[in-house]
Each structure stands twice: as C-alpha cells, then as structure tokens.
Design goal:
It is a single chain. By secondary structure, this protein is of the alpha+beta class. The protein has a single domain (31-316), classed as 3-Layer(aba) Sandwich (Beta-lactamase), CATH 3.40.710. Helix content is 39%, strand content 22%. The protein is built from 9 helices and 9 strands. The protein has helices at 5-28, 58-73, 107-115, 120-137, 144-158, 183-193, 197-203, 285-305, 313-316; strands at 31-36, 42-46, 81-83, 104-106, 207-214, 217-224, 235-243, 247-262, 268-280. A 5-stranded antiparallel beta sheet has the order 2-1-9-8-7, with helices on both faces. The chain has a two-stranded antiparallel ribbon with strand order 3-4. A two-stranded antiparallel ribbon has the order 5-6.
C-alpha cells in the first residue's frame, strides 16, 4: 500500500518529534555512573550517556585546570593573589562574600570558595587570573575567561569526554552559550581531578576560613562544603551542583584502604580501591549517592575476587588518560 506524499511527510515529522521527545525524556530522568577509579571498571550505570546541563559540577574542570596551571608554572596557590575582575558584575546570582571588583584573595582561598561553597564569582575570578597568565605566556591577546574555558574544553577532549562542552567556568546557564556533559564524562573528569593532591586536599574539607582583601581591609569568612557526604568515612570529595535546568547533582569520591593479598610467589601485593559516583538530576542526591556507594562496592568486591574479568573492554572499562 502506497501512502500519499503528504502522509510520508507527516510520518517523517512525527518520527522526528518522537525522537526529540525521547531525548527530552532521557534528559529529564536521573543519570548515574559508578566506576572504580584505578581499574576503570564500570559498576553501575543508567542514562549515563544522556547529554544534559551539569550546573556547578563544571567547577571540577575549572579547579583541575587551575591546579594544573599552578603546577606547571610553579605557582604557590597559598600565597599568589588574584583580583576580582570587573566582569563579576555580569555573573549575577548569590554573592555571599560580597565580592567587589578589585578585591583580592589567594588562589587557594578562591578555589575553596568555588569548590566548597560553589561561589560563582570566585570561580570567575580564578578563570580571569589564570586566563590572563595563559594569554601573557602565549604572547596572545583576547578574553582571559574565554582562554581559560578553552583550556577546560581541551582538557575534556584529552580525557575522551566526547559528549561535553563547557561555556563558562562556573556552570550557570546563559543564553546563547549552551553547555552540557554526561554522567559518564563527569566520572572521567572526577577521576582526573582527584589524581591531583592539591585538588583533593581542597574538596575533602568540611569547612575552611578564608580572607578577602578589600578597600576597607581584610574580611574573613568561613566556607562550608555543600557536599553533605564530606567528612564521612572514606569520602574524599568531589562537588555538588544545582540549577533549574540541571537539577540537583553531585559527584562523590570514596576510597578504601588498599587490598593486600599474597601473590603465588609469596610476595605481597596491594590493590588500591577508589569509587567515583556521579548522580545527575536527583532531588535526593546525597542519599542516592550513599546507596550507589554501597551498590558499587557490592559489585566491585566479587569482581575483583574473581580475578577482575573483562569480556568487553569498550563497555566495561573507562580509561582516563593523564595528559601533560
């Protein structure tokens, strides 16, 4: 039976609408990824490849780029100061430290504010400072924040984060600047960032005191970690995020003591164990993360005891390189 041309067009249109609706529904659902960081073993995954906003989980990339820059340049983040740029007035949103253009703080304190309290203005200030340094060293000119975001995207590409695009250093949605990632890609990023000792030291803190140097003198603030799991046994970080588009999100890193076993030759061998748990768009993200931690270990332990078998490496293992 042949359909008239208008019917074929209608069928094609309806098919397209159904595909778009399916993509939208996938984005509305929760996305999760649980993996073991050292082996790359995928333990639990659901909707993990769906592209979606990730809110302030974006700051994991910002923090990693800043720490890598400091390491590469020999910059002491505990003493090097940055200035709050004029462009902070364009960010909007909460400003709990009342940051004003020209205020100064150390790179480390700015990272505490950005990674623990998720301060968007602090994240922008870090990006502006590091971006200016990068432009200067490269003999270029242009937008320093744009240069920094370019580094974030280059990092993502080098890590195999093929479904990720960063548009700014803080994760707020902005008109005409579409950014997205996936639970699987955030897990890759989290593995990479948590390999950096300076980054890990920052994100595992429950709270820190920081100082902002303004026109009227120094101001002290207590920065508290927005991650409710911080301070629990084995928890090393990583980051929370929430916007209306992304929903409540969290990436968590938990570590156990290395598993020490006797080898056939009688020598001892130690297997390090670290979980990365990513939850996107779940209103009870912390409880969900705790549940997934238990579930992840329940899958990993018998897998390791069985000799860590892998049938399909492309589906079962996430390899995270460490580009220089």
């Amino acid at each position: 039976m042949f359909l008239p041309k208008w019917s074929l067009v209608t069928v094609a249109f309806l098919t397209t609408c159904m595909q778009v609706r399916a993509q939208d529904e996938a984005t509305m659902q929760e996305s999760i990824m649980v993996m073991e960081a050292y082996s790359g073993k995928v333990l639990v995954a659901s909707n993990a490849a769906a592209k979606r906003p990730i809110a302030s989980l974006t700051k994991i990339a910002s923090g990693a780029v800043a720490v890598d820059w400091a390491t590469a340049t020999g910059t002491d983040i505990s003493t090097a100061r940055i200035s709050v740029p004029q462009t902070v007035t364009l960010v909007g949103g909460p400003n709990p430290m009342n940051l004003q253009p020209g205020d100064q703080m150390t790179v480390r304190d700015a990272l505490y504010a950005a990674l623990l309290a998720s301060d968007n203005l602090a994240a922008l200030s870090v990006a502006d400072h590091v971006g200016r340094e990068l432009i200067s060293r490269r003999g270029k000119s242009g937008d320093p924040v744009g240069e920094f975001v370019g580094e974030m995207n280059r990092l993502a590409k080098s890590l195999g984060m093929t479904q990720t695009r960063f548009a700014n250093p803080h994760g707020l949605e902005r008109p005409g600047a579409k950014a997205f990632s996936t639970a699987a890609d955030v897990a890759r990023l989290s593995v990479y960032a948590m390999r950096r000792n300076a980054f890990t030291f920052i994100v595992r803190q429950k709270e820190r005191q920081i100082t902002v140097y303004g026109a009227t003198g120094p101001r002290n603030y207590t920065i508290r970690n927005s991650n409710e799991l911080a301070g629990e046994t084995g928890i090393l970080g990583v980051k929370t995020g929430t916007t209306s588009a992304a929903g409540p999100c969290v990436s968590v890193c938990m570590e156990r003591d290395p598993l020490v076993r006797t080898k056939p030759d009688g020598s001892k061998g130690a297997t390090p164990r670290r979980l990365i748990v990513v939850v996107l768009n779940n209103p009870d993200r912390f409880s969900r993360a705790r549940s997934l931690i238990r579930q992840g270990w329940a899958v990993y332990d018998p897998w390791l005891s069985a000799g860590a078998p892998v049938k399909d490496k492309r589906r079962e293992i996430i390899s995270v390189p460490d580009p220089s």
